[in-house]
Prior knowledge:
- The structure holds 2 protein chains of 2 kinds.
- By secondary structure, chain A is mostly helical.
- Chain A has one domain (3-38, 69-215): Fumarate Reductase Cytochrome B subunit, CATH 1.20.950.
- Chain A has 11 helices and no strands.
- Chain A has helices at residues 3-12, 14-37, 51-60, 66-71, 73-91, 94-104, 113-136, 138-143, 146-166, 173-190, 198-215.
- In chain A, helix 3 (51-60) packs across helix 11, helix 7 (113-136) runs antiparallel to helix 9 (146-166) and helix 9 (146-166) runs antiparallel to helix 10 (173-190).
- The radius of gyration of chain A is 20 Å and the shape is globular.
- The model of chain A has no long low-confidence stretch (mean pLDDT 93).
- Chain B is α/β, with parallel strands linked by helices.
- Helices cover 42% and strands 9% of the residues of chain B.
- Chain B is built from 17 helices and 9 strands.
- In chain B, the strands form 3 sheets. Chain B has a 5-stranded parallel sheet with strand order 2-1-3-7-9, with helices on both faces.
- At the A-B interface, helix 1, helix 2, helix 6 and helix 10 of A face helix 13 and helix 16 of B.
- Chain B: [3Fe-4S] cluster binds at residues 274, 293, 296.
- Chain B: The chain crosses the membrane at residues 21-43.
Amino acid sequence: MNEPMDFLIWTRSTAFDVAVTIFVIGVILRLFEIISLGRKQNLAEAKGTEFGPGMRTIFSRSVPDLGTFRRQPLTVVTGYMFHIGLFISLIMFVPHIELFRATFGFGWPGLPTPIVDAAAVLALIGLLAGLWHRIMNPVMQKITTFEDWLVWTLTFLPILTGYLAYHRMVDPYPLILGLHVLSVEALMIAFPFTKLMHTFTVFLSRWYNGAMNGRRGVES
Amino acid sequence: MAEKNTLGESLRRHGVSRRGFLKFCTATASLMALPPTMVPAIAEALEKAKRPSVIWLSFQECTGCTESLTRSHSPSVESLIFDHISLDYHHTLQAAAGEAAEAAREAAMHENKGKYILVVDGSIPLGDPGYSTIAGISNLEMLKETAKDAAAIVAVGTCAAFGGLPQANPNPTGAVSVSDIIKDKPIINVSGCPPIPTVITGVLAHFLTFGSIPDLDQYNRPKVFYGQSIHDRCYRRPFYDKGKFAETFDDEGAKAGWCLYKLGCKGPMTYNACATAKWNQGTSWPVESGHGCLGCSEPRFWDAGGFYNALSVPISDNSQTVAFAAAAGLALGAAAAGLNYKNKDEATKAHGTVTIDDLEKSS
């Protein structure tokens, strides 16, 4: 009789402790390792500065390249849909902000729930379109590995279960809320060891690209 | 005792008018989410209903459930209904004590075999039977004996329904719920700490009217009362959706009646009728008086994190976990970096030069 609530309590205590420990250790370990390795010293004479172009590239790469857009408009549009939808539903939903506040001691104002709800739907549609593209496109078929399926599933489940929990589409409620928390924990555990690390490394690699171009005097 | 006269006769004898009686029937119909066309049927069924025998057993409890039922609603028609079931045993309310009381229970069980309703409040200790006894009989033994010939069991309060406060971690008495022990009888869980008085009278009225138990949810609670969450029926819900929250109990948001989610309201996970039925004859309910819902009608609500922490906040202190994990991550990252530098160094040292001649030889 009490199992759904026992499950929810477990996901909010023991399972969360395990997941957050693996996540934090893994992410910091990998970032520290990457940064400490640095890059090979370039002995050629510098033709420009590194810092400015590096910083500029971090932002400029967020604007889609026109050529890519013409070749793969769907990939670009659904990619943006998914990332913006995920961003809003992850860090602009008040219960999520309260979790950050309890962990790090600071929070920020959230958005009204209808906006977060719409963002979650956008993220789900974006992910489904990405999956369809991965299955149908012959090139994608060739380059897709097990990790891609795993990462897609681990990203899709938290948004789906969150949507189901918010709209109370599964009974009993503690079961679906527990599944939502558990799916996020699975994502957190896999995060440091998969391509999900791009969440943090994307900005590092953009900076390196921009800095290298800047040094060689290439416009970034 | 039971079945001597009908409920209708009994109510008239106590001066309840036809109008008052029909008003109660209408309220019951709307409470049970039945169409208005059912009101005459309810009235007729209640009019003719025989007074069922009710045996009320109190185990590991605080008597709060009995307080809720007896005090807050007198002298209403609901309480008269409650009076006019034949409450044959209730060791807090009955005049008899000791052996006479136990004799009354046994007599009721014998005379109404298979027909009486058993109401239980309080959990049952499975640890030492001596943790809770009545007239020298352990709770477990009394429950099994009395449940054997009951028509149905109503577990009143979260203790009887789910184990309740006595089951709170580390559960020193080994407390369990009624449904953990009795498996072969229909059990209606009327959870809450305490439950809303109208809900228990509503369940009994349903039983009197239809002779059956109401539709139940996964936790065996009547769907009519526990079908919707506090959150979904809360009058402060629009503030939640707009993102307007009270941050402390005395800020402008709290004064303006904004959502109490951030102050620990467990409304989103709690299913009960507080937001609609309210308390103290419809006067108010916890959220209306400015305090978040504790989730008292849900299993293990006492172990589900701090009452003043938001529902989304983890139960254990994870800021400490994060700090330790970050330190461990840095140490491991430094070790990994050291290892990588060593590999790089060794690779540089082991670097040999290759000439054109070497390449020609190997090909």
